[in-house]
Amino acid sequence: MSGSPSLEPGAALNAAQIAELVSGQLEGDSEQLFTRVTDLAHAEPQHVVFFRAGADAAGRLPSNEETQAFHDSKAGLALVDDTVEDPGRPCVRVANPSLASAILSRHFEVPQQYAPGVHASAVVANDAQIDAGASIGPLCVVSEGAVIGPGVVLVAQVHVGPGVILGAQTILHPHVSIYERVTLGAGCVVHSGTTVGAPGFGYVWSGERHLQVPQVGGVTIGNGVEIGTNSCIDSGTFQPTEIGDGCILDNHVQVGHNAKLGRAVVLCGKVGISGSTKVGDGAVFGGQAATVGHLKVGAGAKIAARGAIMKDVPPGAVVAGFPAVDIKQHQRDKVRLRRLLRDADKK
Fold first, then answer.
1. Is 107 a catalytic residue?
2. Among 47, 173, 257, 330, which one carries the catalytic annotation?
3. Which of 54, 77, 125, 134 has the maximum number of C-beta atoms within 10 A of its C-beta?
4. Which domains does the chain have, with CATH numbers?
């Protein structure tokens, strides 16, 4: 979907403008100006909702309650696909209502703006290079040799280590720590409490104690990456740990040293990627899934929540369980186990 009306971000839109913005087909019309996208239950006439009657990308169909909620909703406009036969109100037909709702929400919800400049309480090394369009907030620390690009925002109490490079339009929220030898691309967002570039978990037993192996590889993060709160991405040992363009990391995610994530990888909450694991483009890890080290997870693979990856996963595979196996095999095993337990109870 592309193309948008020439309107200020955040401005109310009429139905025709919304159809143009999301590249959809308007059915019916309304003089109402719409101000936000919201859920079915709380929508008012000035609001937009989205709905599909058919299965979504995960194969899930709406429940009877959700279908009834759509028909009962007071929303003045609906984003729907061709599976919805009778919207009961003006609608915009699109291929993907969820995507259309995200595009429209991004129009209505204008990000907070930060004025360029360095706050008086910030500490900036003399040789740090800070673009005139960057915003360095209260109590931030920018160490020697750091390079801060145009439009970068350090909100507050952010620590940027020596030699760090931050690409244009990147935002670091409060209490983020970026260690030395880290490069973040353009348009990245790092949320509060996250640490990037801390030493990887590398030790060798000397016979008397665990001897730390210096982790000097740093971290390289591509463009358009978003990292949730309280996550950790460890420095590589000799070469960088790598996070590809467009990756999304949820809260409390751990990426170990020397790991390499391809493009558009999704790591849901509390995922753990062990050291030297390679993850292909577009792979998705459900909440609390994890890998052991030195494995390959193929492009487009899907790991169910709490799945434990103990061996390589082929591209496009869908796995679940501990240890993770093909999800259909996992489901059959669970059925067999329930039958065994049921039969045992009868004895």
1. no
2. 257
3. 77
4. 15-108 (3.40.1390.10), 179-328 (2.160.10.10)
